[in-house]
Amino acid sequence: MESVGNMAVELAYKYPFCSYSKEVLSDMAISGIERYLNFGRERVQNDIYLKNRYYELGINEIKLEEVKSYVYSRMMVSAIKNPYLIERFCRGEAQRSKEALVRGDAEEILYVSEEAGIRAELNNDGLFMVGIADFLRNSPKREAFRLVNNSLGNGKVFLVRSRMIELAEEGIYRKIKDGLPIPVKELPKDLVDSSRKMDFDMQIRIPKQKGRNTGWIELVLGTPIPDVRHRTINLILAPYLTNVKGMDVEQAAKVIYDYIEECKKLNPDTRVNISYIRYQCKYAKEHRLRPLSMTNAKALLSEYIRFE
Questions:
Q1: Is 72 exposed, middle or buried (0-12, 13-18, 19+ CB in 10 A)?
Q2: What's the pLDDT tens digit per position in 248-296?
Q3: How is the beta sheet containing 128-131 ordered, strand by strand?
Q4: Residue 135 in contact with residue 147, Cβ under 8 Å?
Q5: Which residue among 16, 164, 168, 244 sits deepest, i.e. has the most Cβ atoms within 10 Å of its Cβ?
Q6: Quick check: 256 and 220 in contact, CB under 8 A?
Q7: Element containing residue 2 per DSSP (H, E)
């Protein structure tokens, strides 16, 4: 694809993680830091609530403002240093890029996929051909993306347009996350100070439930953590899902397994497997265990989750 004016700006606006962003911003000075702090803060806020949307715009100056807001949002979420907020930020940005990609043609899908680390080709039948290694590395953890449920040939997986876009979204997420968090020493001090003051405002609100307040456990289930996962399962999640939510052992184990898979994106070093999870769910149900109180859970998880 040609690297020329309007096209470069359009692609940078749609996919600010891509190389065109560096190109269009390389000769531009960013002035008015307070203004871009506000833009960046708003973008992070929208990302963590998965409300960041792609809109078609016709004015290049506004598109470039959006690209700058992405640059600042990356710095700001790095300064906050909360693994969960970084995770949500990356998901929000990937979701926005997917919305743009849905409107793109095949050439754009191929370009964005390659920028995200997925090499693909288009065959004569209009199917996207992806190498098995790239497919497995980026596949969403859903039944439709199991290798046995897809067409294979000559070391390639054949995907229709919609599945190729879903695969690209996962690659985009990984691409964005690879560079985060940016080391604090590489960030402007004013930005770091300002970002840390915004930390509390950006926490996911804890849902409330009738009776004893266990809504905070839904926050735990939505917050991948890099450590203390055995104890989180034993003391909080297994008792909660089986004895508060009333799930059977298999249902509860599936929820926890999916949660651990998300945790492994932060730190893959864990011995937690499905057999261990099933055992803990069965034990909790048979002994009618109750989850930890929120006070004790804070002592266990406060390094990773903000409960305020």
A1: buried
A2: 999 999 999 999 998 998 888 888 999 999 999 999 999 889 999 888 8
A3: 120-122, 128-131, 156-159, 151-153
A4: yes
A5: 168
A6: no
A7: none
